From TrEMBL:
It comes from Spirosoma linguale (strain ATCC 33905 / DSM 74 / LMG 10896 / Claus 1). It holds the Pfam family PKD. This is PKD domain-containing protein. Coiled coil: none annotated. Residues 68-118 form the PKD domain. NCBIfam families: Bac_Flav_CTERM.
Length: 963
C-alpha cells in the first residue's frame, strides 16, 4: 500500500540520519503484554508479549530474538519462542509475538513481566543516548483473577506504538485500545522500566529517564510551559511540543475497571522520532459521538486536510474493525461479534480534502453498556525525504438495545373486571437469557424521554417480567377503577461473560388506559358525632359513572360494608339499598349510627367503608355483583401534648388525594360539645399531616380566640380535610370535604420558676472579741432570699428547697423545704457556722428551678493557753485548760516535753484538760515544761491545716496558785 511505502521511507530516512552501528545488539523499540482467559473451568490464560523491533539498526539482534523468559507472577517462569514476525513501515520495523498458555493455581493478583536485554540506541531521554541500547527493556501486565471474571481479557492496542513528530508542533498518539469484554478503560502516564538481569522478573523505573518536556521550551501556540499528558478517558497522549530532533521513549498504563473495581493494568512502552522540517501535521475534522439502536447502519464521513496541501491517508483503529496492530485480520473471537465495520476509501492516499466513510452495520449481539471507541488516524504524504506526520481523532459509539415496538393497552374481562391486557410486536434482539420487564405508573403524562436514555423514565414501578418471546401480558395487580395507568416495557440483557455487556434497552412507547367506571365512587366519609357508643358517620357516593340505566338489567343494588381501622380489611355488611339509578333518587347517602350489636365508637376507632354494586342478570334474574368501590376511611385525628402546646396529626386511607390542599383546624376551649372556632387553614403536603397549636387564632372571621394554652385546661379539636380524585374521569367531582372525630388534650407545662437570690448572715471575724461565743456549743446560720422573676418563669411557687454542704467543695444535698411565701430559714443546732447553701424554687406542678447563687459561711477560730497552773488538789487551777471562750475547736493534740526534750505526756481530744501528770500517771514536779498544741478547727475546708501552738508552762505544786 502507499501508506506502508511512506512509513518505510520514513524509517530509511532515520536510518541514514542517526547512523546506526551494526555491531551493537540494539533492536527493541516498544512493546506490551496482553492476556486472555481461555477456559471457564480453569484459570488458564493465553499470554502474549508483543515487541516492536528496529529492523534497520537492530536487524541482527532482531533475527536472534527467538525466545524470551516469561515471569508469570506466581513464582514460575517459562522460555517462550517467537510465534510470529510481521514487517511494517516498509520493513524498517517488525511486530513480534511471543505467546504461551499458562494455568494459575488459584485466584489472586499476578504481575506478568518480560525482560529484553537491549533497547535500541540513540534514545535521547534515556541518557547517555548513544548507549541507550545497553539499557534492558522491561514491560509488565497485572491481572486480578477471581471466579466472577470468567473469560476476561486485557484490552488490545490496535495502533502501533511507532509514530513521528516535528519540532515545534504538538505531537499526539492514541493506542486505539479495545476491550472485548466491554470493561471501562482509564489511562495514566508511567515511566519506561528496566530490570537488573537479562531474565529479570521485577521491573524498576529507568534511573536516567527524563520527562519529554526537558527537551521542550514552548508549546505549539507559543505558551509556556510545555506539556506532556494523557487523556484519562480516550487515551490520547500528547506532547506540546517537542523542542529537539531525535528518538524518545515513554510509557503509559491502561487500567481495566469492571463495576467500579480495578481488574487489571497493562503497560505500553512506546517510541517516537522527532524531526525538524517545514512539514505541518494534517488536520482531521472533529467527529461527534454517536448513539444508535442495535441494527442501525452507521455511515459516518471522516474528513481530513493538510495545511501544506499534501495528500493524506485516513486509517481507522478500534475493536469494531477486525484488524490488529499490524493491519491484518484477527480471529473473530479476539474482538467483537460480526458484522465488522469498514472504512471506505481508508488506507489509501487521497487528494485533499480527503474523505473516508466509516460504515458499520450494527447488530443486537453488539449491545453492551460501555461505548465503542473508534480512532481515526490521518497521515500526510510529503515529498521525499520529508517524514510523514500524523493526527488522531477518537469518537465513541454507544449501541443500545432497540425499544419494544407497538405497545398497546386495552381493558379485558376477568372475575371482577379489573384487568388490562398489554400487547406488543415480537422482540428478537438480545442474547439468550434476555427477558422483558414490565413497568407501570398512575397517570398518563407522557414526558419526552431524552435520546439514548435506556431504561424507563422515573416514576414507573416494575410489576412483572416475561420471556423475551412473549407478546402479551395481562395486568390484574391492585388496579383501581377510575385511575389512568401508563405502561412501558424494556428488554433486559444478561451479562453473559461476567463483564459489562448487560444492561437494558430503550423504553417502549407509553401505553395508557383509563379503566371504565362500572362501580360507584365514594365521595365522603365524614364524622358527624364523636361518641364511645352510637357515634355517627355520613357516607356518600356517586352512581356508576360508566354505566347507564339500560346497560344492564335492573333492579340494581348497593351493599354497604364497614371495617374497623384506617386500613381495616375485615368488612361486614351494614346496609343494602335498592336503586334504579334514577338521577333524582335519594339513594347515594347513608348515615351510619351503628347498631346495638355493633355500636359505632368514633372516639376510639376510625372506620373504613366500601360499596358493592349488583345488577340483575337477564338470564337468571339473580342479583350479580358487577364491581366494588375502592375503600375509603374516616379521617383519624391524634393529639400530642407539649409544653403549653398541642400537636395535632391526621390521616385517612382514601382513594382520592388530600395532599397539597388546605385543611381547616377547629378548636373548642369549652369541651367536646363546642362551640368550635376555626383557628387555622393549614396547607398540607403528605400524610401524616400535622399542626401545632400554641393558643393563637389565625382565622378571626368567627371571633378571635387567641390566648396562651394552659396546663390547667383541656382543649378539643377537629379537622376538616379537602381532597380530590387525581384521575381525569373523577376530578370533575370537585373537592371532597370530610371531618375528623373530635379529640381533646391538655398541654403540659414545663415552665420552671426563676432561681431565687440567696443571702446569709455571716460572721465578721474582725469584730469578734475574746468573749464572743463564750461557752457556746450550738450555732445558727440565718438564710434569706428573694424570689426570682422573668417573662419565661413560672411565678406560681409552692415551696423552696434549701440545700446544704458542711464542707466546700462537697456536693450540696437537700436539707429541708419551706412553704411559700416564706423567704427565710434558720439553720440551727450547728456545731460550727462553717457551711455552704443554695436555694431552689418549686412550682405548684412540682417543677424545680435552677439553683440560686451559692453562699458560704466561715468560722472564726480562736484558742489561747495559760503559762502556769497549780495541780495541788485545792480545786483551784488544778488543770491546764484553754483560757476562757475557745471558738470552733474540733480537736486538740497536746504533747509535753521537759527541758531536755524528752516527751512526758501526749493526749488528744475535742478539749484540752491536763492535770500535770505524765502519760504513765506520775505527778510531774514543780518546774518549767514545754508543749506543742496542734489545734484543728471546724472550718469550711475539710483539710484546712491545723494551728500549731508552741510555748512553755510552769507547774507549781506548793500552796495554792491562781492564774
Amino acid at each position: 500500500m502507499r501508506f506502508l511505502y511512506i512509513l518505510g521511507f520514513l524509517g530509511l530516512f532515520f536510518c541514514a540520519v542517526l547512523k546506526p552501528t551494526a555491531s551493537r545488539a540494539t533492536h527493541v523499540r516498544a512493546g506490551e503484554i496482553t492476556t486472555k482467559r481461555i477456559s471457564q473451568t480453569s484459570l488458564t490464560y493465553r499470554i502474549t508479549f508483543t515487541a516492536y523491533f528496529d529492523e534497520v539498526k537492530g536487524k541482527p539482534a532482531a533475527d536472534q530474538a527467538e525466545n524470551y523468559t516469561f515471569c508469570f507472577g506466581d513464582g514460575t517462569t517459562a522460555d517462550v519462542r517467537r510465534s510470529s514476525r510481521v514487517y511494517i513501515n516498509g520493513r524498517t520495523s517488525s511486530v513480534n509475538s511471543y505467546t504461551v498458555v499458562h494455568t494459575y493455581p488459584g485466584p489472586g493478583t499476578y504481575t506478568i513481566g518480560v525482560t529484553v536485554p537491549n533497547r535500541n540506541a540513540d534514545t535521547k531521554n534515556l541518557p547517555p543516548a548513544a548507549t541507550s541500547d545497553q539499557i534492558r527493556f522491561f514491560v509488565s501486565t497485572t491481572i486480578y483473577i477471581n471466579a466472577a471474571l470468567l473469560t476476561n481479557s486485557t484490552p488490545v492496542m490496535l495502533n502501533p506504538p511507532l509514530d513521528s513528530g516535528r519540532v515545534g508542533q504538538k505531537f499526539c498518539h492514541n493506542p486505539a485500545a479495545f476491550d472485548a469484554d466491554g470493561d471501562s478503560l482509564a489511562y495514566r502516564l508511567s515511566v519506561p522500566q528496566t530490570s537488573l538481569t537479562d531474565n529479570g522478573c521485577v521491573g524498576r523505573a529507568i534511573p536516567s529517564y527524563q520527562d519529554p518536556t526537558r527537551f521542550s521550551t514552548v508549546r505549539e501556540g507559543g505558551g509556556t510551559p510545555p506539556t506532556f499528558s494523557i487523556d484519562a478517558r480516550t487515551g490520547e497522549l500528547c506532547w506540546d511540543a517537542p523542542g529537539e530532533i531525535g528518538q524518545f521513549n515513554f510509557a503509559f498504563i491502561i487500567e481495566e475497571w469492571r463495576n467500579g473495581v480495578l481488574i487489571g493494568e497493562i503497560t505500553r512502552d512506546m517510541q517516537i522520532i522527532v524531526v525538524d522540517n517545514r512539514n505541518l501535521r494534517p488536520i482531521i475534522q472533529p467527529i461527534p459521538d454517536l448513539c444508535v439502536e442495535a441494527g442501525a447502519l452507521i455511515t459516518q464521513p471522516v474528513t481530513a486536510t493538510d495545511p501544506d496541501g499534501q495528500r493524506v491517508i485516513i486509517a481507522g483503529f478500534g475493536g469494531v474493525f477486525n484488524i490488529g496492530a499490524d493491519r491484518l485480520p484477527l480471529p473473530a473471537s479476539e474482538l467483537i461479534p460480526p458484522a465488522y465495520a469498514r472504512l471506505i476509501n481508508g488506507d489509501i492516499a487521497q487528494n485533499q480534502p480527503a474523505t473516508a466513510t466509516f460504515s458499520w452495520q450494527t447488530s443486537c449481539n453488539q449491545i453492551r453498556q460501555a461505548p465503542y471507541d473508534v480512532t481515526f488516524k490521518v497521515t500526510d504524504v510529503p515529498q521525499r525525504p520529508t517524514p510523514a506526520l500524523v493526527s488522531f481523532q477518537t469518537f465513541r459509539i454507544q449501541i443500545v438495545g432497540p425499544s419494544i415496538k407497538n405497545l398497546t393497552a386495552r381493558p379485558t374481562a376477568t372475575a371482577n373486571g379489573r384487568a388490562i391486557q398489554l400487547s406488543w410486536s415480537p422482540y428478537s434482539c438480545g442474547n439468550p437469557g434476555t427477558y422483558i420487564a414490565i413497568y407501570r405508573k398512575e397517570g398518563c403524562d407522557d414526558r419526552p424521554v431524552p435520546p439514548c436514555t435506556t431504561g424507563v423514565p422515573p416514576g414507573y414501578t416494575k410489576i412483572a417480567q416475561v420471556p423475551v418471546t412473549a407478546t402479551t401480558y395481562t395486568d390484574t395487580s391492585s388496579l383501581r377503577r377510575g385511575i389512568s395507568y401508563a405502561y412501558r416495557l424494556v428488554a433486559v440483557y444478561p451479562d453473559v461473560n461476567g463483564g459489562s455487556n448487560g444492561g437494558v434497552s430503550l423504553a417502549s412507547n407509553q401505553a395508557c388506559l383509563n379503566l371504565p367506571l362500572l362501580s360507584p365512587v365514594i365521595t365522603q366519609v365524614t364524622v358527624d358525632s364523636t361518641r364511645d357508643i352510637n357515634g355517627q358517620i355520613t357516607l356518600k357516593w356517586t352512581r356508576p359513572i360508566g354505566l347507564n340505566p339500560g346497560d344492564l338489567g335492573a333492579p340494581y343494588q348497593y351493599r354497604l360494608q364497614r371495617a374497623t381501622g384506617l386500613t381495616g380489611t375485615t368488612f361486614t355488611p351494614i346496609a343494602t339499598i335498592n336503586t334504579t339509578l334514577s338521577p333524582t333518587a335519594n339513594d347515594t347517602t347513608f348515615l351510619d349510627r351503628g347498631t346495638t350489636a355493633s355500636p359505632l365508637n368514633t372516639t376510639a376507632n376510625p372506620y373504613r367503608y366500601r360499596i358493592e354494586f349488583f345488577y340483575t342478570d337477564a338470564t337468571t334474574q339473580q342479583l350479580t355483583r358487577l364491581d366494588v368501590t375502592e375503600a375509603a376511611s374516616s379521617v383519624r385525628l391524634t393529639a400530642t401534648p407539649a409544653n403549653r402546646q398541642i400537636t395535632l396529626a391526621w390521616q385517612a386511607s382514601v382513594p382520592w388525594s388530600n395532599d397539597a390542599r388546605v385543611h381547616d383546624v377547629y378548636r373548642s376551649r369549652t369541651g367536646p360539645n363546642g362551640p368550635f372556632n376555626k383557628i387555622r387553614e393549614v396547607t398540607v403536603q403528605a400524610q401524616p399531616y400535622s399542626f401545632t397549636d400554641d393558643g393563637s387564632d389565625a382565622f378571626t372571621a368567627d371571633g378571635n380566640t387567641s390566648r396562651a394554652l394552659s396546663a390547667d385546661s383541656s382543649y378539643c379539636y377537629r379537622v376538616m380535610t379537602r381532597g380530590q380524585y387525581t384521575d381525569s374521569q373523577l376530578s370533575r367531582l370537585g373537592l371532597l370535604l370530610n371531618y375528623s372525630q373530635v379529640i381533646c388534650a391538655t398541654p403540659t407545662d414545663t415552665t420552671r420558676p426563676c432561681p431565687p437570690t440567696l443571702s446569709l448572715d455571716s460572721l465578721n471575724c474582725a469584730s469578734l472579741t475574746s468573749e464572743s461565743f463564750c461557752n457556746q456549743t450550738s450555732f445558727t446560720n440565718q438564710l434569706r432570699w428573694t424570689p426570682g422573676s422573668g417573662p419565661t418563669c413560672d411565678a406560681n411557687i409552692a415551696t423552696y428547697k434549701i440545700y446544704y454542704a458542711r464542707y466546700r467543695p462537697d456536693s450540696l444535698q437537700a436539707l429541708t423545704s419551706v412553704a411559700a411565701p416564706t423567704t427565710s430559714f434558720a439553720h440551727s443546732s450547728l456545731t460550727t457556722v462553717a457551711g455552704c447553701y443554695y436555694v431552689t424554687a418549686v412550682s405548684a406542678r412540682g417543677l424545680e428551678s435552677r439553683p440560686s447563687n451559692v453562699v458560704c459561711n466561715e468560722a472564726c477560730p480562736s484558742l489561747a493557753l495559760p503559762n502556769v497552773f497549780t495541780p495541788n488538789g485545792d480545786g483551784k487551777n488544778d488543770v491546764f485548760v484553754p483560757l476562757a471562750c475557745p471558738r470552733f475547736v474540733e480537736r486538740i493534740e497536746f504533747v509535753v516535753y521537759n527541758r531536755w526534750g524528752a516527751k512526758l505526756y501526749e493526749g488528744s481530744g475535742p478539749t484540752l484538760s491536763w492535770d500535770g501528770r505524765s502519760s504513765d500517771g506520775a505527778e510531774l514536779p514543780t518546774g518549767l515544761y514545754y508543749y506543742q498544741a496542734t489545734v484543728h478547727y471546724a472550718l469550711l475546708n475539710r483539710n484546712a491545716p491545723p494551728q500549731i501552738l508552741k510555748s512553755w508552762v510552769q507547774i507549781i505544786r506548793e500552796g495554792s496558785g491562781s492564774r
